[in-house]
């Protein structure tokens, strides 16, 4: 949190102060970033759309050389998930401990199950579920729900128990 | 837990001659014997759903075909199906692979209970045949029962002499009461489906073996249905000799407590490796560090005798004699160790003692170095649980503490 010149966070987005943001990161309206989320944009910028949820210990890291990482709207990155994909669409669910490797891309309405992995250079078509120890793929008809209720709840509850990024200057970590 | 505490390296001998880890063993305190899974009787104590923990009685479970009515598993990947509501109707979705009850061509329902499952299409025919067989059984056994005199207790008009000319009427009535024995018609043989037929009307991609096993009645042409969670049973363990209960859980499915528990750990001295063994070399004396713990409710008088049989590692240490206090007793210092043996004792904690044994491996047993130990131990007063009648019958036996033995093999790898 030493260099936050390139960080631009929309006003309605809630980012806890324990989150670590490095480099050029743009987060649009309505997102929720839990404590201990890492945004590492030292190798290239990260653009995040609206109404995304990043849960604890999620790591969003741009490993490409200067190429931007684009994340769409209404995605959920669950606890301990790792994402270094070049593109993530909208309404995706990235499960607990799931890994999106360097340079892969995920389109819309996909679901990556806990502990599964999307390999680099892999491109997920819309509405694909990845699951199991062998990372099986199947096309689904069931849509992911947009987490409206969850977002509303988090927006209400997180500020009452956490210091927010950029709002309070006197924080224990700084 | 067993691997964490390295219990898997130490095997105790069961009374039936098998070698098992100590946490897997039971102890019958009436027969004074160690019992394992194979030499104890087990009976199902309670049947319940592992998911929603709803208990059901045995006939109830049989009615439900040992499946829970409320909980469903994914037909594709076997994970939990959760309900999702849309327009006041709900359907089931797997959060893992996004398989849903809509994929099974099931309409949305108003409640989450009683989703359909595939039934055997020949159920009624099967019931007919079994009913017919039962009728035949009754008729075949009837003369035998008569001979045995079972039915002679009940008065019957058949046994009367035809004194009053009612026999004819009785015969007529008896004939009317004889059950029908219309044999069930054997159904015509049907041609088994060929491979081509099966491949032609395949609705989706090939199913995995797990998916087929989960619902064996569903044909390949039909879509998979949500799988109902199978019920599980909780067992009660008995000694196979005296039939006394060794393990019994508390009433209720949710509790984890025991009403009766007699695990071997609570009666037999618990021996473990306290330090990993160094590299064994043939002919070189190597120390082996063991810890002995007394988890029983009374103090133990233990003698550890290393065995020197063919095929096992030679141990140069003398037999060790010691007294271990129980974990419940207040005094920590325990008497009874001879001075010349004190170099074998590494440490002494409350109810635990650390020992050092010296082993000399030979060339032959370097492949599988196993140390064989015999323990003689005596517990004072812990077997006062014997029935009072036995105390009265054999007063001299009940007063004396028995010397018990346990054998164990330690894998030094």
UniProtKB/TrEMBL annotation, chain A:
Cellular location(s): Cytoplasm, Cytoskeleton
Gene3D superfamilies referenced in this protein's UniProt entry, alphabetically: Hexapeptide repeat proteins
InterPro entries, per database record: DCTN6, Trimer_LpxA-like_sf
Keywords of the record: Cytoplasm, Cytoskeleton
Any one GO BP annotation for this protein: mitotic spindle organization
Function: Part of the dynactin complex that activates the molecular motor dynein for ultra-processive transport along microtubules.
Family the entry assigns: Belongs to the dynactin subunits 5/6 family. Dynactin subunit 6 subfamily.
Name recorded for this polypeptide: Dynactin subunit 6
Species the sequence originates in: Caenorhabditis brenneri
Phylogenetic lineage: Eukaryota, Metazoa, Ecdysozoa, Nematoda, Chromadorea
TrEMBL record, chain B:
Major localization listed first in the record, in broad terms: cytoplasm
Localisation: Cytoplasm, Cell cortex; Cytoplasm, Cytoskeleton, Microtubule organizing center, Centrosome; Cytoplasm, Cytoskeleton, Stress fiber; Cytoplasm, Myofibril
Transmembrane segments: none
Gene Ontology cellular component annotations, sorted alphabetically: cell cortex; centrosome; dynactin complex; myofibril; stress fiber
This protein's UniProt keywords: Acetylation, Coiled coil, Cytoplasm, Cytoskeleton, Isopeptide bond, Phosphoprotein, Ubl conjugation
InterPro entries listed in its UniProt record: DCTN4 (IPR008603)
Family indicated by similarity: Belongs to the dynactin subunit 4 family.
Assembly, per entry: Subunit of dynactin, a multiprotein complex part of a tripartite complex with dynein and a adapter, such as BICDL1, BICD2 or HOOK3. The dynactin complex is built around ACTR1A/ACTB filament and consists of an actin-related filament composed of a shoulder domain, a pointed end and a barbed end. Its length is defined by its flexible shoulder domain. The soulder is composed of 2 DCTN1 subunits, 4 DCTN2 and 2 DCTN3. The 4 DCNT2 (via N-terminus) bind the ACTR1A filament and act as molecular rulers to determine the length. The pointed end is important for binding dynein-dynactin cargo adapters.
Protein name per the record: Dynactin subunit 4
């Amino acid at each position: 949190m030493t260099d936050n010149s390139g960080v631009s966070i929309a006003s309605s987005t809630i980012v806890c102060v324990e989150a670590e943001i490095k480099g050029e990161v743009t987060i649009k309206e309505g997102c929720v970033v839990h404590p201990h989320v890492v945004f590492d944009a030292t190798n290239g910028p990260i653009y995040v759309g609206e109404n995304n949820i990043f849960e604890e210990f999620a790591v969003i890291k741009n490993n490409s050389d200067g190429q931007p990482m684009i994340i769409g709207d209404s995605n959920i990155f669950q606890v301990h998930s790792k994402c270094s994909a070049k593109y993530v669409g909208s309404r995706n669910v990235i499960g607990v401990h799931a890994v999106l490797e360097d340079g892969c891309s995920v389109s819309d309405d996909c679901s990556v199950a806990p502990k599964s992995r999307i390999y680099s250079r892999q491109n997920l078509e819309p509405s694909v579920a990845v699951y199991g120890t062998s990372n099986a793929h199947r096309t689904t008809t069931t849509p992911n729900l947009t987490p409206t209720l969850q977002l509303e709840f988090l927006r209400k509850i997180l500020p009452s128990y956490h210091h927010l990024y950029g709002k309070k200057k006197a924080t224990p970590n700084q | 837990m067993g691997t964490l505490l390295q219990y898997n390296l130490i095997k105790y001998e069961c009374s039936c001659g098998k070698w098992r880890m100590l946490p897997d063993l039971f102890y019958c305190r009436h027969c004074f014997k160690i019992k394992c899974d194979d030499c104890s009787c087990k009976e199902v104590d309670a049947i319940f759903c592992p998911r929603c923990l709803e208990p059901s009685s045995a006939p109830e479970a049989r009615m439900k075909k040992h499946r829970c009515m409320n909980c469903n598993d994914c037909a594709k990947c076997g994970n939990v199906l959760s309900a999702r509501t849309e327009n006041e109707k709900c359907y089931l979705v797997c959060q893992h692979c996004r398989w849903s009850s809509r994929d099974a061509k099931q309409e949305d329902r108003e409640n989450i209970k009683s989703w359909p499952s595939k039934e055997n299409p020949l159920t009624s025919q099967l019931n007919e045949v079994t009913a017919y067989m039962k009728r035949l059984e009754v008729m075949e056994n009837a003369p035998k029962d008569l001979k045995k005199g079972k039915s002679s207790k009940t008065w019957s008009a058949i046994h009367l002499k035809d004194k009053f000319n009612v026999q004819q009427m009785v015969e007529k009535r008896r004939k009317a009461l004889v059950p029908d024995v219309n044999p069930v018609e054997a159904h015509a043989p049907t041609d088994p489906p060929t491979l081509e037929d099966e491949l032609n009307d395949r609705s989706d991609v090939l199913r995995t073996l797990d998916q087929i096993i989960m619902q064996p009645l569903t044909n390949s042409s039909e879509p998979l249905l949500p799988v109902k969670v199978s019920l599980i049973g909780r067992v009660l363990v008995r000694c196979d000799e005296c039939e006394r209960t060794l393990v019994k859980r508390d009433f209720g499915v949710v509790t984890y407590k025991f009403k009766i528990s007699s695990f071997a750990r609570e009666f037999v001295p618990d021996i473990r490796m306290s330090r990993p063994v160094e590299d064994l070399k043939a002919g070189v004396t190597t120390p082996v560090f063991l810890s002995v713990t007394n988890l029983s409710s009374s103090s133990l008088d233990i003698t550890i005798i290393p065995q020197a049989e063919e095929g096992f590692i030679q141990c140069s240490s003398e037999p060790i004699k010691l007294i271990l206090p129980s974990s419940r007793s207040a005094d920590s210092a325990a008497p009874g160790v001879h001075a010349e043996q004190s170099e074998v004792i590494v440490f002494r904690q409350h109810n635990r003692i650390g020992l050092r044994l010296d082993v000399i491996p030979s060339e032959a047993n370097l492949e599988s170095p196993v140390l064989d130990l015999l323990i003689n131990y005596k517990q004072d007063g812990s077997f006062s649980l014997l029935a009072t009648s036995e105390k009265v019958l054999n007063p001299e036996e009940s007063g004396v503490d028995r010397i018990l033995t346990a054998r164990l093999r330690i894998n030094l790898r």
